[in-house]
Amino acid sequence: MSDTPAFPFVAVTGQALLKLALTLITINPSIGGVLISGPRGSAKTTLARGLAQLLPQKGKLVTLPLGASEEMLIGSLDLQQALSDQQVSFNPGLLAKAHDGVLYVDEVNLLPDALVDQLLDVAASRVNIIERDGISHQHPADFLLIGTMNPDEGELRPQLQDRFGLAVELGNQYSIDERMEIVQQREAFDQNPAAFIAKYADSQRSLIKHIQSAQLALSNVTCSDALRRNIAERCHEANVDGMRGDIVWYRAALAHTAWQGRKQVTLEDIDTVEPLVLSHRRNDNGNSTPPPPSSPYSRPPEKPPEPQKQQPKTPPKDTQQSSSQQQQSQGSDNSNNESDNSDDNAGDNDWGGLPPQQQHLETVEAIRLPRQKQTSKIRPTSPTLKDKVMAGKQKGQAKGGSRNGRAPSPSVSWFNTLVGNIAKRNAPTDWQLHYKKARSGKAVLHLILLDTSSSTLAGQAFAKSKGAVLQIAEQAYLLREQLAVMSFGHEQVKWLLPQVRAPKHLQSLLNETPAGGGTPIRDVIMQAQQYLQGAVVKSPDLEIQTYVLTDGRTTQDFDGLSLQGHCTVIDTEQSAVKRGRGKALANAMGADYFHLNALGV
Q1: Which of 2-16, 56-70, 312-326, 481-495 is predicted least confidently?
Q2: Count of Cβ atoms closer than 10 Å to residue 487 Cβ
Q3: CA-closest candidate to residue 518, choices 296, 329, 305, 380
């Protein structure tokens, strides 16, 4: 816990929805933690520190650093005592230190999944159980969990997202008046923290009393069966997986009702907390709907902010017409710029002038990706998908999770060490250490970059590309390897599928993805490289296979483009006379090159 004074919670400008989420989990901690998604400089840390000042043990905020180990999080074995006294004791970790306080996890999406899963287990049970080599120890760990992430640096697995009770997506857009107020507030705090805190002491005490009153009243709040059904129906309409969303929504509505000073849940309470509960759980054929923007305010009012209305998903007709005309214009310009004077390809120029078009994927029986011929300049490479599928889990094979051929790891098995040496009556100075067996096999990530520009519509190239994506996904699933899909077209880059092991609704998602506009090849490569760098930070042993499915038709140059791990460019061009842009891209990136027609598609 730092002695640095914390900026008062009530003095933070804006971020109404985040303030509401933090207040609700303070009233009812059983809601679960809060996952905050957004850019830097949006008051995430400031509000987390301010929230700690509202708890009974004021100021108790523990930060989990990005490079934290499992022992740092849950506790560690006292090796000195084990060697000298032949007794085992544990040193408390960050979970023990965060008891009755706030545990703040920055960049939670970059932590290893196993560490995040363990963290969320403790947050739900409020008990930390440490088991090491047959020895068990437990201690209370009741804390408010706040996790932050930047989606540009990689997604958090849906299973882990769901474990966070509430989620808020922040923006960094402020009005001119808000910007001025934020700077003035910060300047006043930095110049004289004590005077600034004293200025808001009454408002801070009033907020604390309000929260305490809501906590006492929570057990008396009731909810009618009609509103319970309303929650269930809306979770069903949102295609929410499992029942955690229903439970959290109910608990959040109760907390909001108590916060409002009422004893009966109303539809207003359910509507108010909806974006907090569903923003990270809503499934629309694999597409998540972002939460509505929060309305900023200068000070927390006596009542929580009014419920946010969902923005209409379909823009007005005049907006659609304007957008369609703009896309047609952009697509036409790109097509004309990318065209050449070849008579054989004259018809291709018409594709860019069309609005976004759909092509359903062409089902294929197999993708025959040849064995890679080169080693990545950055990381060691692994066999191709087809090689692994053909090899399977053969006896004696040490890859792909096989248990044969394990080597000792540097981790000591203290239970076996204690038992073995005590049985032999060895003195502590003569102990022989017994080591755990190392895990074999490495995690593999398959990243697919799918060209969705208008030029891919020619010759059913887009449909064939979708078939290739589906085949790669199915083979990755059989190997229990991870998959992520990014699309680039319409002059933009977006995620079609975050990093998952079992992609659901992928075929329908691909069929619903249109093609149109230009080809932002440089943008997708740079965003993919940033994502992969974050993935390697999260899992240093990660093996990366990237597939770029494109016809290469773009006005952008390929100079300086590269990707982490092993890369394969799959050329989707279907013209009678090939321009060779796909091969040029592969040469520029030092990647393997294959044509889509040569892969069995």
Answers
A1: 312-326
A2: 24
A3: 329
Q: Which residue has the tokens 């923003």?
A: 279
- What's the whole-number average pLDDT of the chain? 76
3-class secondary structure, 555:
coil
Q: What DSSP designation does 433 have?
A: P
Q: Which residues pair with 140 in a beta bridge?
A: 127
SS3 assignment for 152-180: HHCCCCHHHHHHCCEEEECCCCCCHHHHH
Question: What distance, in Å, lies between the first and last C-alpha atoms of the chain?
Answer: 59
Backbone region of residue 399 per phi and psi (left: phi > 0; alpha: psi in -120 to 50; beta: other values): beta
Q: Which residues, 6 or more positions from 323, have their beta carbon under 8 angstroms from its beta carbon?
A: 315
pLDDT per residue over 185-238, tens digit each? 999 999 999 999 999 999 999 999 999 999 999 999 999 999 999 999 999 999
Answer whether residue 25 shows pLDDT above 80: yes
The CA distance from 557 to 499, in Å, is 28
**Between 182 and 437, the higher pLDDT residue:** 182
Active site residues: 244
* DSSP type of residue 42: S
Residue at token pair 């229990």:
480
Residue 492: CA count within 13 A, CB half-sphere: 8
CB atoms within 10 A of CB 228: 16
Taking the model in full, what pTM does it have?
0.60
Q: DSSP class of residue 288? A: P
Predicted confidence at residue 28, as pLDDT, reads 94
Burial bucket for residue 341 (CB in 10 Å: 0-12, 13-18, 19+): exposed
| Alpha helix (H) residue ranges in 12-92 | 16-27, 44-52, 70-74, 79-85
DSSP state of 491: T
Q: Is the pLDDT of residue 89 over 70?
A: yes
The single-letter DSSP state of residue 599 is: G
- Report the C-alpha gap between 55 and 13 in whole angstroms: 21
Query: Which phi and psi angles does 352 have, rounded to 5°?
Result: -65, -20
DSSP string, 583-597: HHHHHHHT-EEEEGG
Decide if 447 contacts 530 (C-beta within 8 A): no
Locate tokens 């090159």: which residue?
593
Tens digits of residue pLDDT in 402-436: 333 344 445 666 556 666 666 666 666 676 776 66
Q: What one-letter code names the amino acid at 545?
A: Q
- 400 conformational bin, left if phi > 0, alpha if psi -120 to 50, beta if neither: left
Alpha carbon 184 to chain centroid, angstroms: 34
Residues in a beta bridge with 335: none
Other CB atoms within 10 A of residue 135 CB: 14
Mean predicted confidence (pLDDT) in 505-530: 89
Query: Above 60 in pLDDT, residue 367?
Result: no
